[in-house]
C-alpha cells in the first residue's frame, strides 16, 4: 500500500461497521493466564457474537501485536484456528509497535477497496503479563553448543559452568521498553521531551487528571458499554470493565508520586501509561457488502499517513509530523475536525506533540509547511480519556481509538475525527475518520 491514502473517489469503499474490545487491565493481574492469542480470541469471538456475522463470510483476519507468544508469532492465524473458524480464512499478523492495530485496520480497508476482500476482521492486542523472560545471550552462546551436541558429557557441562560468571550470566534479564538503536528507555525519551519542550510536572499531572476524569465519565455514562465486552478469566472471574481508570484521583494524589525515569524528573507512574493486557477487534466491509448484509456503517477512512523520525531526536514526536499530513491528504484543516484522539503513552509526550502542532517554526522545519496545523481545543481532545487512564496494551491501542472514534461519529452529529499515534522506533501514524453519511456527499 502507499505511504498515505489519497483523497480520491474509488469504486469500492471500506466502512467500519462494528468493533469491540476487552476491558483493559493492569499487567500481572486478572489476565495473567491469558496470552495474546487468548485475548485476541476473546475479542474476535465477542465481535462475532455481537454482530451475528456468519463465519463463512469472513475473507481475512489481520492482527497487530508487539509481544508474540513463543512458537506462534502469527497470532492472527492462531485466533482463526482456536475459534474454529473456517481454515480457509486468510490471516496474518503485523507489527508496527504501538500503531500495529491501526496499521492492521488500514490494511483491511486497503484490501477491501482494492477488491481483494469483502469482509475483514482487523485489530490487535498484547499480553504484557506473558512477555518472555530473556536469558542472557552469553548463557545461550555458551550452553547451546554443548546442549545441541549429543556426544556431550559431564566434562563438557563442567566446562560450561566454568565459563559463566556467577549470577550475571545466568540470571534472566528484566524485560524493558527500550530502544535497540539508542538503549534509551521510552520513559527516558519522554522525560527528555518534557525538558526540551518545557513541559512541567504540574501540566502533566493536570492532563493525567483530565484523562482519568473523562474516562471515568465515559464509563459511568455507559459510553463504552457498546464496545467493551466481558471477559471470563482462567480462574472463572468475569471482568466487565476497564480496571486502571481512577476517577477519584486528584492532583494532590498525583503530586505525591515519585519520578521513575530520572532522579529529578517529572514523569511518574501516574502520568505514564501502565503496562496493560487487552485486545480490540473491528469489523470492516465494502459499503456494498454492508448494505447487502444489513449492517449500518459507523465510519470510514478519509486518509492515513505513516512516518518515521530519528529515535535519538524526540522519539515520540511522530504524531506531530504525521497528523498534519493526514489532514492535508484528506483535504481538510483543523477547523474542519470535530474530535481529535491522540495516544497517551505519557502525558509529557502528548503535551509536547500539542506544542509542536501549534508551532509555525516546527511546521516549516519538519514538514516544509508555511504554517502549523494549529492549536487543538482541549474540549475536542481525547474526550473519553486516553491511554494514561485506560491503559495501553501495545497492539490494541490503535484499534481501541478507531472503534471509539467510529462510535463517536455514529452516535453524535460529529462528522470527522483525527487520530494520532506515537510508536517505538521513532514511528508515527495518523488517520482521518469521517461519518459515512457526510462523506458520501463529499467524496
List keywords for this structure.
443 residues, alpha/beta, Peroxisomal Thiolase, Chain A, domain 1, four-stranded mixed β-sheet, 15 helices, 16% strand, globular
Number of strands: 12
* Helical fraction: 25-40%
Give the overall silhouette: globular
CATH C-level name of the domain at 14-131 and 274-434: Alpha Beta
Tell me the series of helices and strands, N- to C-terminal.
EEHEHEHEHHHHEEHEHEHEHHHHEEH
By helix and strand content, what is the structural category? alpha/beta
Mean pLDDT: 92
Sheet-strand content, in percent, reads 15-25%
Task: Return residue spans where pLDDT drops below 50 for at least 5 consecutive residues.
Answer: 1-10, 438-443
- Architecture per CATH nomenclature, i.e. the level-2 architecture of the domain at 14-131 and 274-434: 3-Layer(aba) Sandwich
* Biggest sheet details: 6 strands, mixed
Looking at the structure, the CATH topology of the domain at 14-131 and 274-434 is Peroxisomal Thiolase, Chain A, domain 1
Distance between the termini: 20 Å
Report the radius of gyration as a whole number of Å: 22 Å
Q: Treating each run of at least 4 consecutive H or I residues as one helix, how many helices?
A: 15
| Fourth-level CATH superfamily of the domain at 14-131 and 274-434 | Thiolase/Chalcone synthase
